Structures are given as C-alpha cells and as structure tokens.
Please model this.
Amino acid sequence: MKKVKTLFCFLLFLSTFNVNAQSNDSAIIRNIYNFSLTNSSCYQNLEFLCKQIGPRLSGSTGASKAIDFTKSLLTKAGYDSVFLQPTMVPCWVRGEKESASIQVNGKNIALQICALGGSVKTPKNGIVAEVVEVKSFEELANLGRKAIEGKIVFFNRAMDPTKIETFGAYGGAVNQRGSGASQAAKYGAVACVVRSMNLRIDDYPHTGAMRYDTTYPKIPSVAISTFGANLLSDQIKANNKLKFSMKTNCETKADVLSYNVVAEIRGSETPENIILIGGHLDSWDLAEGAHDDGAGCVQSMEILNTFQKLNIKPKNTIRIVLFINEENGLRGGVAYAKEAALKKEKHLIAIESDEGGFTPRGFSIDASKTQIEKIVSWKNLLEEYGLYDIRKGGGGADIGPLKDQGVPLISFKPDSQRYFDMHHAATDVFEAVNKRELELGAASISSLVYLIDKYGL
Amino acid sequence: MKKVKTLFCFLLFLSTFNVNAQSNDSAIIRNIYNFSLTNSSCYQNLEFLCKQIGPRLSGSTGASKAIDFTKSLLTKAGYDSVFLQPTMVPCWVRGEKESASIQVNGKNIALQICALGGSVKTPKNGIVAEVVEVKSFEELANLGRKAIEGKIVFFNRAMDPTKIETFGAYGGAVNQRGSGASQAAKYGAVACVVRSMNLRIDDYPHTGAMRYDTTYPKIPSVAISTFGANLLSDQIKANNKLKFSMKTNCETKADVLSYNVVAEIRGSETPENIILIGGHLDSWDLAEGAHDDGAGCVQSMEILNTFQKLNIKPKNTIRIVLFINEENGLRGGVAYAKEAALKKEKHLIAIESDEGGFTPRGFSIDASKTQIEKIVSWKNLLEEYGLYDIRKGGGGADIGPLKDQGVPLISFKPDSQRYFDMHHAATDVFEAVNKRELELGAASISSLVYLIDKYGL
Model:
C-alpha cells in the first residue's frame, strides 16, 4: 500500500510539474504569437526584398543586393555574430524575352513560354519544327527515334490535381522539366517544350531548373503556360503536322562568387549546440520570389528578432542561414554542410522554411522515431495555432546535405494549395503574400525552436 | 477461458467489421475528393455568380438574377425537387457613392468611406462637424453628452490581431458597427464613423449591417477604411478640433418579395429525415460576394452534384438551401425555420458554409456531447484531407433559427486568415478565390454529409 501511495505521490508530483511546465511554455508560446502578429518586421522586410530588390537569381545584381541588405539588417540588430559564407554559384541569364508561336489557319498564334534555368539558347533565328506531344518518358521511348528525330517534343503531363498536398503533384510531374530535354535529345529532338508546373490554368510560364545528361546533345528547353499547353495540345490533335516556332536567348556564364548569410544568438549554456533555421535568398528571375523563398528568409530572420525582443535567452546557439543558390545548384546548402563537417559543428536540428508564406499547418520531420515522438508530444501546445500536422516526412533542399552528418531535419509545412499558382512564375510577388499568414509562420517556427532549445531532442 | 476466447472473437469480428466499413468509407471519400478536384462545377458556377451577376444585395436586381440562375441550374440538373420559398426582405440602397474629407493645413484630404447597411443618409449638403475618437462604448459614456453633442463619433477600436481565429477578432470589434450609431446618438452625436472590420491596412471601406435603437435619433453611420482610420486618428491627435465632412445618399425602401432557393435529393430509406446544407445567396452591394457567400452557395449546390454524379444514393433526404437576406435581416433563415416548424420537418443536421472559400480546416459543432463525439470519431477518415479541427463550437447565422427546434448545427471551418481582408468590401471578387480551396471545401462538406447519412447522428 505504501508503495502505491509513493507511486501516486510521485505521479501527482510529475503531473503537477508537467502542468506547470506546460502552462509556462504555453504562456511563452502565446507571447511569441502575440509578438509576431503585432510587432514583427517580417512583412516589411519581405516588402523591401521584393519591391526594392526584386528578382534574386544566383549570380545576379539582385542576389548581391539581397545579401548586402540582409547582412546589414542582421548586423544592425546586434546579434552575437553575423557573417558571410562564400561559395561559387552558377550564373545563368535569360537574355531577351523568349517568343513562341504556332500557325493555325494561316494565322499566327503567340504562346507564352520561358526558357528553363540552365538551358542553352536556340540559334539566332529560332527553331521551327513539327511538334510531338507526349505524357511520359515511356511514351517517348515507344515512339522512338523515327517519330522524334528533327522534331520538338512537348511534354504535357499535368500535375495531378487529386493529390491533396500539392508537393506530391509537383513530384509526379517535375521530371519532365528536369530531364525532358535530354530524354528528347536521346531520340534526336531539336528542342523541348514542357507544360508549366502549375495546377491552375493561366497564361504564365513557370521556369525552374533543368539538367543535361551530357551523353546527348544539349537542346533548348522551355516551359509553356498551362493555358498555352492546352491550346497547343488541341491544335496538335487538329493537325499532327503542326509546327512550333520558338526563340530563346539564354546562356550560362562563368561561375560567380556569392555567399550564404549567417547570423546567430549564442547559447547561454551549450553554445556549441546549434539549432539551425534557414530559407534561401536566391529566387528565379521572373518575379520577386516572395513565397519562394523571400518568405522563408524573413521568417528565419524573425526567429532571432523574436528571441531578442522577447528576451528569451536560448541555452543553445540559434543560427539562421539565408542560403544562396537553392534554385539552380544548391551550392549554398552544400557549402554550408561541408564547412559544418570541417569544423565538426554539432547541430541539434536543422529547420527549413521553403514552401511559401502560407497559413501554418505543421512540420514534417526527418529524424529518429524517438525524436519524432518527442516533437509530436508538443502538439497540445501547438494545435491551437493551427499546427495539427506534425509527423514523419521530408526535410528540405538546403538542409538536406546535413543529413549525412546525422542531423535531424524539419520542414515547416504551410498550407500548400496556392503555392504552385505562383512557384517560379511572374505571379510570385509581394502582393500574393498575406501578412498574417507570413507572421503566423514565423511564430510557428519560433515556438518550435523555443521547445527544442528548452527540452532538447 | 472460454469467455475470454468468445470475447476475443467478438472483438476480432468487431475490428474486422470496422476496418472493412472504414476502408469502404475511405474509398468513397477519396472518390468524392477526386471528383471535386477534377470534375466539379463549383468554380465555374461561382464565376457566373460573380462576373455575370455580381453584387446581390437583398431586394436588388442582382439578387433576383441569382435566384433565377441557381434555380434554373438546379432544375436542369434534375434533382428530385427544386422550389422557391418566399419571404419579404428589406430593400436598402446605397445611392450615389459616398464622400468624406478632412482639412489639414488648409488642404482637403479625401477619405474612403461607405454607408453602413441600414443607415439613414446625411442631409443633401452633407454633415460637417468636429470628430471625437473613442475605442469603446465605455469611453463614449465617460465622455458623456457634453463632449459628444453636435459632434461626429469615430469608433476606432481595431480588430485584435492576436486572435488566431479571425472571427474572434471580428466578434470583439463588430459591436461598433452594429450599435455604434445609436450609442453615439444617445449622447447627441450627429453622425458615426466606424473603423472597417479589416485586419489589413488598406484603403477599402467595409460595409455591413447596423441597427438603430429607436429610443435615440437615427444618425448616419459609415465605415472608414483602416488606412483612413489611422490617418484620421493621427490628425485628431494633431488637432483636437478637427472637422470631418461626410455625405451619404443611402435609403431604406419598402420591403420586397424574395426567395430562398431549395433543392433536394430524396432519401431512399427515410426521406422524412433531412440533412440540410446551406449558404446565403445575397451579398453586400460593394463587390461580387465571392467568398461571402457565393462560395457557400456553389459548395452547397456541389454536394447534390457530387452525390448525383458519383451515384451515391442517400438514405435520408439531402436538401440544400440558398438563403436570402443573411446580410441585413436574416429573413430567409427565419422563414425557413418557421416553415420547417409548421410542416413538422425532421432535420438530422443543418450544415452551413459561410466563412469563405478557403482551404478546409474542420467543422465546429453545436450539438449534444454524444453527437459531437460521433462526428469526432470520423476524424481518422478526414484528417488526410486537412480536416483536423473538428470540435464543439457555433453553428451558423442562417441555420441558427433551427436551434430552437433541437436541430444539431455544424459550421464548415475553412482557414480564417484572409477572410476579413475582403469581407463586405470591394475586394471580395472571384479572383480572390482559389479554385482548389473552393473545391476542397465542397468535398469536405460532401464527405461529412456522406458519413452522417450513412451512420446517423
């Protein structure tokens, strides 16, 4: 009986302890959200990044300005250290705006295209050739060289609208953009046109990275708007000898020296342990990179601002990294991981925000079962802020190279429904970001960082 | 031992039964989402409602056209019954666009205002008077008649940005709009200006219903944009004798005959049991009423379309109601409940969609503990579609009058972050609705209706 009583007392103590700890955590998390929704500077920082700087493709003036701007902001804030981490980055330039057209009943119909990042350009007078539509690499292979040689291949497999998480739909279609050109060149195609990675029907082409398999000739590769893709498909059905004209002006220049921007608040107890949060500062050239990934950068910066302004002293070092070159090379992410390994740095966790500045939904975690369970156990503190969806899943591109060093990875998951309307297209502008959604994202990540710092992993 | 074995077998049977039932439900719900995301007509119906018809204030031509359009659509679809349910509705008209200004250093500064629905107009030459800013009715009462008489009262309590659910923030501010005029008139004010119910700072005034307490004189009442409210507040701080000029041209005309639009698929087993789903067809006059509540109407219509096209035969009658006059009178909701009582109709449930066409989050349920628990037990089927937030809470305005008849009520809960950017303002247009978000909402409600029809409540 005494044993039972002791156990009971112990359990009572534990539960009281838990209730107190939790109610204290609950109050601090409430403060974090209050701060974010009333006093954060992430929205105005994003406005500057989008409207005063604009597109920030690796190697561009915009990218350099963004590095200077964010470094200067972080330095002025007086964090414990702010530094640049050098890396060479590719420098691909679009040149003059692309053009494309088809002839229908003797009438010229212009189509909206854009070169894919990394593509070679067409000859000066452009390319005119018959166009063959396929939905997959298998279909292409079945058609074979006889049907493809000398022609333009049009990859028109749409993103699957029935995937609830739109990143799944992206994953199911993006190999057309990444490898379509070389797959087509394998059978003698002279150019490649890819349906934009966009779930919406509109007239904006979406760019993005493509890679050449050097076994085959490098042929020009472009994205066509979803509206244009549907129109082109209809016209091919009506005329299987339809010719497609296209002209692009892009080229790859010599690599350029660029930088990750790093800032940290040093830990008060175990400064050697690092909690890393990051987004990427580079964007595609067609828009302002507001959701992709201005949002992730200003949210990362906001974590430090929140800890500083609320006077939360972390036990571990909170470090943010604004990575360079996520879009077309991942050189920033790779350089960061390389240096971390060299310096034998210990990362408790690496968190990435690169899925847009939308309303928070949760976190996906690439870590051990025990670590995932620990994070999931904080759900009761986070659910009232809409963070219901906390589970095992992928990390992120820029933090990915840290996985080999055994670092647990977390990707912040905002709602994904609108992301691909804007992703890599001219529509990804500041006006497409809702202030509250952006701020809630910053608060969500800050709260998670607070809990990881306090309880470890 | 035998007992244990029997129990074990029974439990095994139960769990197998559950797994089979659940996997069948899971497949049907998957079909519902697939249909919604690929073949639904709710987005095109919303486009027609917004772009071909436009504003639909009760008593207006737009409202009549919307009734004709939806009735005709539902009739063409061949549902078991489609009918109009008559009710008289108020007819308030805005007249010529309002104007307002202040004089700062001899310069005229125009401010964006709009009359509140139900307000009387100013005299022909407008009203010019000193303006007094208050944040609450208490502050107004403390100032008293001496400070208020002959002046314009400016209610400038902002919606609280720290509320995560924005409807809570709305609830905390909207009494200024609803009762501000009479509260001000009580102390001799000549007009009332209310900060727009908007969490964003922009230059769009947001209208909405106001009511007079007939104990006091009816004074003109307007909303000012949040940008204008901040500017006005700053100028009052600089000059406490600041005069505000305003002119409005609105008036209330005689009541007009109007209608709820009702359609149903009759139940195959217990047709006398009704599952009701509704939204409201009327909107404010300043915009297209896309989110408020075109979205709820086209989603309600989509439930019937989904059941019909997927050949799901409900046991109970599925009835949709497109209510009239939610915005400024609730006459449609009241008339519906009155007739339901007269006919002794039995509603299993009433579900409302009137919080915008945003990404689904869950349902709030106003029902008995047992009923709520039953609905919550379906979470495992609904969570993968983002419906995490299923819990006790309020029903909706139009279905509210059914509560007295003991009908359980459910409100569909989409994400609330962007709603008040557009609510009752010129920004509530078709372009502000994302197709997938709208379709996911329709699928979410259809899935819930499917489960309620199958398992009862």
In short: The first strand of chain B starts at residue 81 and ends at 93.
